Amino acid sequence: MRVDCEDCAGCCIDWRPVSPVTLDHERRGPRAPLDDTYNLVPLTRDEVREFVDAGLGDVLTPRLWEAAPGEGVEIDDIEVAAIHGKPAFFVGMRKPPKPVSPFGIERTWLRSCVFLDPDTLQCRIHESDLYPAECSEYPGHNLVLDKETECERVERIHGGDRLLDDTPPENHQGLLLGPHALGAKLFVHPEPERLDGVVERLRTRSLTEADRAEFVGVAVGSHPGSTEVDDERARDARERTLEADSWAGDAFETWVEAATVLGEDAVDAPDPADVEVARGAPETPGWDAIRQEN
């Protein structure tokens, strides 16, 4: 498996506003996400805990799904996918609007991973201990499952060669599907009644810090292979998430305030170095350095 990521970041950004065709691969079937985040990266329980330990709990957000009538649990007049009557969810990374130039287009406001450097389109936590396994192995899982990759979507719509070798990797860490995912990547909230109002705020992109911290806490307190949650661990993670004041969380709010309309020109956007690096964001090496290494 080999990919060319330079000037792309298609898997890290929501490029639907600049796509001439509809991109809806996440919204097919009976269990579509309740949120409208594109390509949310699901984190494992241990990864969520590591983000909280690093003071980055404020960049995490949940994903829940719709369910067919009678097949889930009703919250805010919405049928939510559930396991044993309790809401199921992922935890991923938030995507603020950023001024980016993927695929050779002009700098444009698009939702992008909170850790994406808008200038280089490289990940600020790449090769760090926090870099998620799902990101490091992408698009390996798609290739194993014989599903279209974001690389191929970019090729189909914008041309070029992105997926240079489509041989599935032999040493991937595992897909964590089915029962193996429970409590390890797929979490279950133990008290649906505590989510009154939260599901509606999720759908309208108006989750509060307390809403997000609630799910982060449950994820950290979960037991692999079980729906049980350790209340003490969950409470501690929830409190530390609420206390988080990271460079990424702070930059998120600045980008939201500066952004205009998604898909529109971002020529007047603030300098990413002023918004992110000045707040403590790790710098990225740029593509010249990557080419020299290779």
Tell me what you see in this structure.
- The protein is α+β, with helices and mostly antiparallel strands.
- The chain has one domain (2-282).
- Helices cover 28% and strands 13% of the residues.
- It contains ten helices and nine strands.
- It has helices at 45-53, 133-136, 140-144, 150-158, 198-203, 209-221, 231-243, 247-258, 272-275, 287-293, and strands spanning 2-3, 60-63, 72-75, 78-83, 86-93, 97-100, 108-111, 163-165, 187-188.
- β6 (97-100) and β7 form a beta hairpin.
- It starts with a strand and ends with a helix.
What Rg is obtained from the alpha carbons, in whole angstroms?
A: 19 Å
Given helix and strand content, the structural type is: alpha+beta
Shape verdict: globular
Characterize the biggest β-sheet: 5 strands, antiparallel
How confident overall, as mean pLDDT?
Answer: 93
**Fraction of residues in H or I helices:** 25-40%
How is the topology of this model organized?
Blueprint: E1 2-3, H1 45-53, E2 60-63, E3 72-75, E4 78-83, E5 86-93, E6 97-100, E7 108-111, H2 133-136, H3 140-144, H4 150-158, E8 163-165, E9 187-188, H5 198-203, H6 209-221, H7 231-243, H8 247-258, H9 272-275, H10 287-293
Pfam family, one: DUF7531
InterPro entries: DUF7531 (IPR055953)
Protein name: YkgJ family cysteine cluster protein
